[in-house]
Amino acid sequence: MLVLCDHASRHIPPAFRGLGLKGDNLSRHIAWDIGVAEVARPLSRLLDAPTLLAGFSRLVIDANRHLGSRGSIPEVSDETPIPGNQNLDERARKERVQAFFKPYHAAAARLIEAQIAKGVRPLLVFLHSFTPVIQEFRRPWEVGVLWNEDDRLARPVIEGFRAQGCTVGENEPYSGASPEDYSLHKHGEGRGLAPVLLEVRQDLIDSHEGAEQWAQIIAQVLTPLVEQAGRLQGQES
After folding, report:
1. Cis before 173? omega within 30
2. What CATH architecture is 2-234?
3. For the chain, domain boundaries
4. Mean pLDDT of 83-106
5. Residues contacting residue 74 through CB under 8 Å, at least 6 positions apart
6. Residue 18 contacts by C-beta under 8 Å, 6 or more apart in sequence?
7. In this structure, which of 68, 168, 211, 225 has its CB flanked by the most CB atoms within 10 Å?
8. 164 neighbors 204 (Cβ within 8 angstroms)
C-alpha cells in the first residue's frame, strides 16, 4: 500500500510573498488540507507504507488538479481572491508546473514503479480532508470515500469504516469522478491499480489527539485489505 497526500502543506516559498494574502488566510483550508500530514505520518508507520506528502500549498499550484483547469492555479478559492495568482502569464504558470507539480508527481511515479519492479501491485490511498461547514451547510460525514470507475478498494473501505461506527459519505462531500481531479485518475486508474481517495472531516483531525485517533481508525480499516491486495488487484470493479 502507498499513501499520497496532495495537499499536505501550506508552505508558500518566500519569493511568492504569500501570494498577496493577509491575516489568517494562509492557515485556512484554502491553503492546505488541515490535519492530513498529522494523520499521514502515524498512518505510514502503522501500515508500514511508503508515504508521499506534497511540500507546497495548493494555492501555488494544486497537485490534484489537471493543468490548465480552473482550480490548477486558482484566482479565487472559497470566495477569497488570490492576488498572486491573478493575471499570470504563461511563463509564470510553466515555472510553477516545473518547480512543484511535475517533481511531486514524478516522485509518486517512482514510488509506484519501485513497488511494481518488486512484483507488487500496490493499493493506492490518497488522503485528504474537508471543512465541516461550507456555504452554511454542515456536512454530516466523518469520512468520505471517493472513487471514479474502479471501486475495488472503495467498497471494502466503506464497509470497514461503517464497521468502526463511522458516518461515511460515498463519493461525498466530493466525487472521485470529478473531471478536474488528477492524482487518483493518473496514478491509480491510469495504471490499472486499485485506488481510493479518503476525505476526513477537519474538525476531527485538527488536534494531535484527533489526528492520532483517526490514523488508528484508518489503519484498522486498511490493514486487512493489505493482506487481500492480490485479490483486490485481480478482481473486476
Report:
1. yes
2. 3-Layer(aba) Sandwich (3.40)
3. 2-234
4. 98
5. 59, 62, 82, 85
6. 12, 26, 84
7. 211
8. no
| Ramachandran area for residue 41 (φ above 0: left; ψ -120 to 50: alpha; else beta) | alpha
Nearest residue to 61 via CA among 100, 32, 21: 100
The closest of 184, 116, 122 to 150, measured between CA atoms, is 184
Cα distance between residue 69 and residue 193, in whole Å: 25
pLDDT one-digit tens code per residue, 182-227: 999 999 999 999 999 999 999 999 999 999 999 999 999 999 998 8
Q: For cell 489568517, what's the residue?
A: 24
Grid cell, residue 96, equals 510553477
Higher pLDDT, 234 or 136: 136
Q: What are the phi and psi torsion angles at 65 (to 5°)?
A: -130, 140
Q: What is the DSSP string of 120-183?
A: ----EEEEEEE-SEETTEE---SEEEE-SS--TTHHHHHHHHHHTT--EEET-SS-TT-TTB-H
pTM of the model: 0.95
Q: Which residues of 44-56 are buried (b: 16+ CB within 10 A; e: fewer)?
A: beebebebbbbeb
